[in-house]
Amino acid sequence: MNERRQQDGSMAAERKGALRLEHVSRSFAQGAARLEVIKDASLTLPRGEMVALVGPSGSGKSTLLHIAGLLERPDGGEIWILDNPSSRLSDARRTELRRTAIGFVYQYHHLLPEFSALENVVLPQMIAGRSRRAAAERARELLGLVGLSQRLRHRPAQLSGGEQQRVAIARALANAPALLLADEPTGNLDQHTADDVFALLGKLVHEMQVGALIATHNLNLAQRMDRTITLRDGVIVQL
Ligand SMILES: Nc1ncnc2c1ncn2[C@@H]1O[C@H](COP(=O)(O)OP(=O)(O)O)[C@@H](O)[C@H]1O
Ligand SMILES: [Mg+2]
């Protein structure tokens, strides 16, 4: 019965959009003026869809990802994560939602240097309340999926750039998020490695039915995603 209820619950969760932005705006003070970086941005990202976020440097891609990831608040508008309107949540609930429903991948891996690949994937799960044993089991499974079964005990400095990003992807998916936000995730890698890491990311996003919003400069990568959103002068243009 309990298992049945959980299944129904997760099916309902899959029908919800991973992310919805509604009339989001964000500006920064620039001397006496204000720099309007995001103007009235709205978008819906269902689970299982991989969307490219493109735009020139300084167009607001990182700002939009920070807002979508509840790391920054917008000046106006609403961010929905799995049908939770984030502006109405307490700080504690926002933090919990960020930990459990959202995974982040950055251009630089940001792994903890003193910890092994395995531990880097275990820790976010323990912070979210999973037992060490269950977390380690899932970490092994995820690191296997990203092709690193033979690197569990390596520290980040002992891994190649591509391997570091694979660990970062496993870490981002550790708590089975509905939403994955990635900021130029292959930007530091050579072309061949970037292609491999990107293909892996796409495979996992689709298999795990994660909604993914991926900022990239690389139009070849953008073309390999399900849809492209362009930021131009602070406005979202959907192609
Ligand atoms: N905290 C901040 N304070 C002031 N200006 C900022 C801040 N964060 C970003 N900006 C400005 O907003 C614009 C968009 O930045 P960003 O989102 O990093 O763009 P992108 O990721 O597309 O390169 C830039 O002009 C940047 O200088
Ligand atoms: Mg950026």
Structure notes:
The strands form 2 sheets. A 6-stranded mixed sheet has the order 6-7-8-3-9-10. Strands 2-1-4-5 form a 4-stranded antiparallel sheet. The protein is globular and about 50 Å long. Strand 1 and strand 2 form a beta hairpin. The chain starts with a helix and ends with a strand. It has 239 residues and is an alpha/beta fold. The relative contact order is 0.18. It has one domain (2-238): Rossmann fold, CATH 3.40.50.300. Helix 4 (117-127) crosses helix 5 (132-145). It has helices at residues 2-15, 61-68, 91-101, 117-127, 132-145, 161-172, 191-207, 219-223; strands at 17-30, 33-46, 50-54, 76-81, 84-85, 102-105, 179-183, 211-215, 227-232, 235-238. The protein is built from 8 helices and 10 strands. The site of adenosine-5'-diphosphate has 10 residues, from helix 2. Magnesium ion is lined by residues 61-62, 183.
User: Which sequence of SSEs, written as H and E, runs from N to C?
Assistant: HEEEHEEHEHHHEHEHEE
Using the 3D structure, state the CATH architecture: 3-Layer(aba) Sandwich
Instruction: Indicate the radius of gyration in whole angstroms.
Output: 18 Å
Identify the strand order in the major beta sheet: 6-7-8-3-9-10
Number of strands: 10
How many domains? The number is 1
Assembly state of the chains shown: single chain
* Low-pLDDT sequence parts: 1-14
* Helix content estimate: 25-40%
Largest sheet, in brief, is: 6 strands, mixed
Number of helices: 8
Intertermini distance: 45 Å
Can you identify the CATH superfamily? P-loop containing nucleotide triphosphate hydrolases
% residues in beta strands: 25-35%
- What hetero molecules are bound to the protein chains? adenosine-5'-diphosphate, magnesium ion
CATH fold title: Rossmann fold
| Mean pLDDT across all amino acids | 92
Q: What is the general shape?
A: globular
